[in-house]
Amino acid sequence: MKRIPRVVFGFGSVGRAVAQLIEDNEGYESEGVKLELDSVFDRGGGVGVRGVPVERLLEAKARTGTVTAASDSRAVELDLALEQCPGGVLVDASVTDAATGEPGFSAAERALRRGLSVVFASKGPLVARYRELSALKEEFSGELGASAAVGIPLPVLDVGISGLRGAGLRRARGVLNDTANQILRDLEAGRTVDEAIAAARKAGIIEEDESLDIDGWDAAYKLLILARMFWNETLELGDVRTTGIRGLGRPELDEAKAMGERIRLVATGELREDGVVGLSVAPERLDAEDPLFSLRAGEKGFVFETEHMGRVTIKTEKGGPRTTAACVLKDVLNIALRSVR
Question: What is the domain extent for residue 38?
Answer without folding.
Answer: 2-153+321-339
